[in-house]
Specification:
Blueprint lengths: L2 E5 L4 H12 L3 E6 L2 H10 L5 E4 L5 H12 L6 E4 L15 H29 L2 E6 L12 H20 L5 E8 L2 E2 L14 E2 H14 L3 E4 L1 H12 L2 H8 L11
Parallel strand pairs: 1-2, 1-4, 2-3, 4-5, 5-6, 6-9, 7-8
Helix pairs in contact: 1-6, 3-4, 4-5
Length: 252
């Protein structure tokens, strides 16, 4: 039986991936902050699954959950999908704590999620480590410095890890979602082209995880947009992006 460890499983992309993998018979570790939401999700899934209510910024708690799940057998897929997105402005000194929370949740928790599983996967010569970046990693977005920086860090970290594990049989997959219909995007005040249901995202993402795709933008249309954005001259990007509506800051 396939065994899958998923952080951020209480909602959004994490919950959609849990639904997909449970539907094909996998045994899951559902990790998130909200126990009630995790247990409600688990109750709707076929099969029996482990629930771990914790903050992924707590490395010790995260590692303890990983060790507990590993007692049931080797883990095939680890998906670090926990993440937060809040608007930030560097000129607002009170936003520093938000910057830190975003980096801790989106970047360092990805590292902490993978840590307990690598040795076992290398020993078996197989497994999937899945990091969730974003199209927002392609260029810096105004009012989203913390989020854009964190997702660029995830993308580059996963690339580094993939090179480190080259030849081990362990595949590192980087998923870069475009706009996915989740609670995280619900508050965005701007147009979201190619908005994709989370369930559809999960189906496509799972195919790439199975294949061990190095890095992929989902949906593919946003991959085209990302490729174009990379080639836009800096002076032009600055003028256009400066007029873009910004994600609300905390409390707005």
């Amino acid at each position: 039986m396939e065994r899958v460890f998923i952080t951020g499983a209480s909602s959004g992309i994490g919950a959609a991936l849990a639904l997909f993998y449970a539907g094909r018979g996998a045994s899951l570790a559902l990790v998130g902050r909200r126990r009630e939401a995790l247990e409600a999700l688990a109750a709707t899934l076929p099969g029996r699954h482990a629930v771990y209510a914790l903050d992924v910024r707590d490395r010790d708690a995260l590692h303890a959950a990983a060790r507990d799940f590993l007692l049931g057998g080797p883990v095939d897929v680890v998906i670090a999908s926990a993440g937060i997105s809040i608007g930030t402005l560097t000129e607002e000194t009170g936003d520093f704590a938000v910057f830190q929370a975003i980096q801790d949740t989106n970047v360092l928790a990805t590292v902490a999620t993978f840590e307990p599983f690598i040795a076992g996967m290398k020993a078996r010569g197989g497994g999937r480590l899945v990091g969730v970046a974003s199209v927002a990693a392609v260029r810096g977005l105004p009012g989203a410095g913390a989020y854009s920086a964190s997702k660029a860090a995830v993308r580059n970290y996963c690339e580094s890890l993939r090179v480190e594990l080259h030849g081990s049989g362990v595949r590192v997959v980087t998923l870069s979602p475009g706009f996915i219909r989740t609670p995280m995007t619900a508050r965005n005040p701007y147009r979201m082209p190619f908005l994709m249901p989370a369930e559809a995202f999960a189906r496509v993402a799972a195919r790439h995880i199975d294949r061990g795709t190095r890095s992929v933008v989902i949906p593919w249309q946003m991959g085209v947009v990302a490729a174009v954005l990379r080639r836009v001259p800096g002076w032009l990007y600055d003028r256009v992006a400066a007029r873009r509506k910004r994600k609300p800051r905390q409390g707005q």
